[in-house]
Amino acid sequence: xxxxxxxxxxxxxxxxxxxxxxxxxxxxxxxxxxxxxxxxxxxxxxxxxxxxxxxxxxxxxxxxxxxxxxxxxxxxxxxxxxxxxxxxxxxxxxxxxxxxxxxxxxxxxxxxxxxxxxxxxxxxxxxxxxxxxxxxxxxxxxxxxxxxxxxxxxxxxxxxxxxxxxxxxxxxxxxxxxxxxxxxxxxxxxxxxxxxxxxxxxxxxxxxxxxxxxxxxxxxxxxxxxxxxxxxxxxxxxxxxxxxxxxxxxxxxxxxxxxxxxxxxxxxx
Length: 269
Fold this sequence. Notes:
With about 270 residues, the protein is α/β, with parallel strands linked by helices.
C-alpha cells in the first residue's frame, strides 16, 4: 500500500486510495462491491453518524473473507472523508462526535476509556495511540499526555485535529518497543488494546519498554476474544490466565482483572 495521507484532497463525496474507493450515495446501507481487484464501498452516512461507533457497524457489515486490516482501515478513512467536504472539517467532525460518545457512555469503547482514566496517575505516555481518542480524553481532563504511534499519518492527523478541539498534547512517531524518551519519564504508561496486534515476542518488548519509562505504573488493556479479529489487525488472543502470566513475568506487584475485556496494572516502583 502506498503511504496514506488521510488529509489529502479528494472530490466531494468520493475518496480513493490504492484499490479502495468509498462513495457517498443518496440512500442505502453500507455496501461492499468487489471486482477487478478493486473494492468499491457505498454508503449514505450523515455527519452526525461519523464517529468511532462506525467500527462496530463496519465490522458487522463485512461478509467478505478477503476483507483484512488494510481494507478495513481504508474503508474507515473513506467513510469519514466522503461524508463531510474538506479534510480537516471531516476529521474534526469524526473526532468531536467520537469524544462526545465516549464521554456520554454511548460508544462501545466508553467503559474501557472510563476504566483507563480511573487507573492512570499523573502524566501519561500512551503506546500505540492510533487515532488518539484516549490521549485526547485524558488531555481534555487536564492530564499531560504524550501520544505515540508507529504510523506517522495518525500522529500528523492528531496534531492537526487536537488544536481544533481546544486540546493540547504531545505526539511521538515511534515503535512501541523503542520509544525515544528517557527512563522514568512518565508517571503512567498505557497500552490500551495494543498487545493483541503484536506477537508474544514483540509484546514482551513493549512491556519491557513500558516498565522502563513508567515511574509509577503500567496500565494494559486487551480484548477477550475466542478468535483474533483479523480485520482489526488482531493476531493473538488473551484471557485472564495469560494476563496473570504476563504480570508474574515482570517480578513486580501487579493486578489482573476483567472489565469489558482484560486489564493488567503493574506497579513500576
